[in-house]
């Protein structure tokens, strides 16, 4: 699918089409349909993968609810999903590192490898990136897809297919930790205890962060964060007038200066909290993108030489994610709270569950 799977005539279900040729298509606002599609030919450097596990991401929900996410707009039916793992079923003639039967986690973005960003090693910034379920590229919530072999990473024996699918959201946390240079002397503040905030906690702990404090508006999410390794939690509000008092609470919970803040939400209030709470000479990493435009206190932060960095997706993270999972330095299994099969009824229920939030952290399909 990542290489251009196509809908069958008119997208109408055909009783003669085998079940393995089916995918979950986003065809309109709040409308998903399991429909047939045609796979592209397996090229010499490609593999065909039977997909076994797919997680629902917040961007998938955005597309379902509004047919757009950030600047990307769905203009024609598109297969949804990008957090995935499966079993290799066919390999291209030039593929040497994989064989049929291998269990793999798939990195969902295909970069051009020719532009300045790719040649400079920052392929995640490639302007011609073809990314699963980012219009007009089809996604991976399908029985099988064709994908470049070099973007399919063999799973260690003790890592499950579900954990393999979790490498995608985990990669965001790992990339953020690399951008912020997290290490054993770093005190980390994580703002937002949603899925990305939680994988940021797990990643910061794996990178050896000295102390991790997480803030959120929800007690249940804070409790989960504590169980995953956060040293302390601070409940905050959405009221900007509470910011000064909350920054004071964060300082007490940290028991020292905040070296790095991860804003995993991306709202005016959360970014203002990050900039205000971070010590002079520290760093703020903007991970979440809740608001396209924010009004934040940059001047006071600049006067304290607080560096601000952003992240966009990830690069070269799958090997490290799999090593963290293999060694047990990171356990993503507690994040998988709901599981669904691959039927019309279940895909609708799964997306409704994910959109409601509440106690749903990661909703996973088992195909």
Short description:
This protein has 367 residues and is an alpha/beta fold. 29% of the residues lie in helices and 28% in strands.
Provide structural commentary.
This protein is 29% helix and 28% strand. Strands 4, 8, 9, 12, 13, 20 and 21 form a seven-stranded mixed sheet that branches. 50% of the residues are buried. The two termini are 16 Å apart. The longest helix has 14 residues, at 167-180. The protein has 367 residues and is of the alpha/beta class. It folds into two domains: 22-154 and 332-366, Medium-chain alcohol dehydrogenases, catalytic domain (Quinone Oxidoreductase, Chain A, domain 1); 172-310, Rossmann fold (3-Layer(aba) Sandwich). Mean pLDDT is 93; it is low at 4-19. It is built from eleven helices and 21 strands. It has helices at residues 58-66, 116-119, 161-165, 167-180, 195-206, 219-228, 243-254, 268-277, 298-303, 318-327, 344-356; strands at residues 6-7, 22-28, 31-38, 46-55, 68-69, 72-73, 78-79, 83-91, 103-106, 109-110, 130-131, 144-148, 152-154, 187-191, 211-216, 232-235, 258-263, 278-286, 307-310, 336-340, 362-366. Helix 4 packs across helix 5, helix 4 packs across helix 10 and helix 7 (243-254) packs across helix 8 (268-277).
């Amino acid at each position: 699918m990542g290489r251009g799977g196509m809908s069958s005539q008119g997208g109408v279900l055909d009783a003669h089409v085998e079940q393995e040729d089916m995918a979950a298509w986003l065809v309109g606002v709040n409308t998903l349909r399991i429909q047939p599609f045609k796979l592209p030919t397996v090229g010499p450097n490609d593999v065909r993968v039977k997909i076994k596990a797919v997680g629902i991401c917040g961007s998938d929900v955005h597309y379902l609810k509004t047919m757009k996410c950030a600047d990307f707009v769905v203009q024609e039916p598109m297969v949804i999903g990008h957090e995935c793992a499966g079993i290799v079923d066919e390999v291209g003639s030039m593929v040497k590192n994989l064989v049929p039967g291998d269990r793999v986690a798939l990195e969902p973005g295909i970069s051009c490898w020719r532009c300045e960003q790719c040649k400079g090693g920052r392929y995640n910034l490639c302007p011609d990136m073809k990314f699963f379920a980012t219009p007009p590229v089809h996604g991976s919530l399908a029985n099988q897809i064709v994908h470049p072999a070099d973007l399919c990473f063999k799973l260690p024996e003790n890592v499950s297919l579900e954990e393999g699918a979790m490498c995608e959201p985990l990669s965001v946390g790992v990339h953020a930790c690399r951008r912020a240079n997290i290490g054993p002397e770093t005190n980390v503040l994580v703002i937002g205890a949603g899925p990305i905030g939680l994988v940021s906690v797990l990643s910061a702990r794996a990178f050896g962060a000295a102390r991790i404090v997480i803030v959120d508006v929800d007690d249940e999410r804070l409790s989960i964060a504590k169980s995953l390794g956060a040293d302390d939690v601070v409940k905050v509000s959405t009221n900007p007038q509470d910011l000064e008092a909350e920054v004071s609470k964060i300082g007490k919970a940290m028991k020292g200066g905040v070296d790095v803040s991860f804003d995993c939400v991306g709202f005016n209030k959360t970014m203002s909290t990050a900039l205000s709470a971070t010590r002079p000479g520290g760093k703020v990493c903007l991970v979440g993108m809740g608001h396209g435009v924010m009004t934040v206190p940059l001047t006071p932060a600049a006067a304290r030489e607080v560096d601000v960095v952003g992240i966009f997706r990830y690069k070269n993270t799958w090997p490290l994610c799999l090593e963290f999972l293999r060694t047990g330095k990171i356990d993503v299994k507690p994040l998988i709270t709901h599981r669904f099969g691959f039927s019309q009824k279940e895909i609708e229920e799964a997306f409704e569950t994910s959109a409601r939030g509440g106690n749903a952290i990661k909703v996973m399909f088992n195909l």
